[in-house]
C-alpha cells in the first residue's frame, strides 16, 4: 500500500476520533473520509486550530516546540521589547534568556548594567551575575559577587546562592568546604543538582560508599516523584544513573 494512502488513512482516523470525542457534528466524518487530505486540512483549520489557541496546555506545548526549533526566537522578542522600553524588567528578562541559551558573556554584561543604584545589592540579580560568571569559568569573579551579596544581606537564605558558593569553593581548590556545603544542600535544595554535585565530589575524594548512597537516594526519590519532576530533573537523574553504574558494585 503506497505510503501516502497510509498517511491519509492515519490522519482521517485521527480526525474522526477527534470528531467523536469533541462531539462535533457527524457530517465532519463524511467530509474527512471523502476529502482525504483536503478534508483533513479543512477539518483541522475549522475545528482543531481554534481549540488549540484556547487550550493552555496546547499553547505551552507549542511554545516548547518553537523554542526547540528556534531557540533564539524568545531572545529576539525580548530584545525588541528592550529596544522599545529600556527597563530593568526587560533587561532582567533578556539576561535570564541569555543564561538559558548559555550566552554567559551577554548575561553577565546585562546583570552588571542592572546592579546599580537601588538594585546594587539585589539578591536575584547578584545570583544571576554569579551564575553567568561561573558559566564563564570566572570563579574568582563569582566569589567576589557572592561575597558582596552576603555582606550586604547577612540574613539572606538562598539555596541557589549556597549552591554557587559550593561550586566556587570546589573550583577554587577548597573541596572540604565545598563538600560540607553540598552535604547541607543535599537535604534542602529543591532539585537534584546539589545532590548530584555532592556525590560526584565524594567520588573525587574517593568516598565511594557515600557516593553510591547519594546516587541511589536520587534514583529512589525519582521513582516516587511526579512525572513532571522527573522530566525537570532528567539531566541530573540520567547522570546519576550513569555514574552509579560506572562505580560498579559496592
Amino acid at each position: 500500500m503506497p505510503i501516502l494512502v497510509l498517511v491519509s488513512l492515519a490522519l482521517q482516523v485521527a480526525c474522526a476520533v477527534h470528531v467523536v470525542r469533541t462531539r462535533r457534528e457527524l457530517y465532519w466524518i463524511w467530509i474527512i473520509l471523502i476529502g482525504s487530505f483536503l478534508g483533513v486540512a479543512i477539518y483541522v483549520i475549522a475545528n482543531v486550530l481554534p481549540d488549540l489557541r484556547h487550550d493552555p496546555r496546547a499553547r505551552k506545548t507549542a511554545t516548547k516546540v518553537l523554542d526547540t526549533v528556534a531557540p533564539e526566537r524568545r531572545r529576539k522578542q525580548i530584545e525588541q521589547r528592550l529596544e522599545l522600553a529600556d527597563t530593568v524588567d526587560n533587561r532582567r528578562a533578556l539576561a535570564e534568556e541569555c543564561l538559558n541559551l548559555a550566552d554567559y558573556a551577554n548575561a553577565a554584561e546585562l546583570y552588571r548594567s542592572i546592579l546599580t543604584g537601588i538594585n546594587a545589592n539585589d539578591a536575584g540579580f547578584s545570583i544571576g551575575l554569579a551564575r553567568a560568571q561561573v558559566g564563564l569559568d570566572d570563579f574568582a569573579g563569582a566569589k567576589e559577587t557572592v561575597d558582596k551579596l552576603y555582606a550586604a544581606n547577612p540574613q539572606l537564605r538562598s539555596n541557589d546562592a549556597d549552591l554557587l558558593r559550593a561550586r566556587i569553593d570546589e573550583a577554587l581548590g577548597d573541596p572540604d568546604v565545598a563538600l560540607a556545603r553540598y552535604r547541607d544542600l543535599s537535604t534542602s535544595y529543591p532539585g537534584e543538582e546539589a545532590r548530584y554535585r555532592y556525590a560526584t565530589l565524594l567520588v573525587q575524594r574517593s568516598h565511594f560508599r557515600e557516593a553510591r548512597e547519594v546516587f541511589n537516594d536520587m534514583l529512589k526519590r525519582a521513582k516516587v516523584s511526579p512525572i513532571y519532576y522527573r522530566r525537570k530533573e532528567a539531566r541530573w537523574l540520567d547522570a546519576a544513573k550513569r555514574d552509579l553504574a560506572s562505580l560498579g558494585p559496592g
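DSSP finds 14 helices and no strands in the chain. Residues 27-53 form the longest helix (27 residues).
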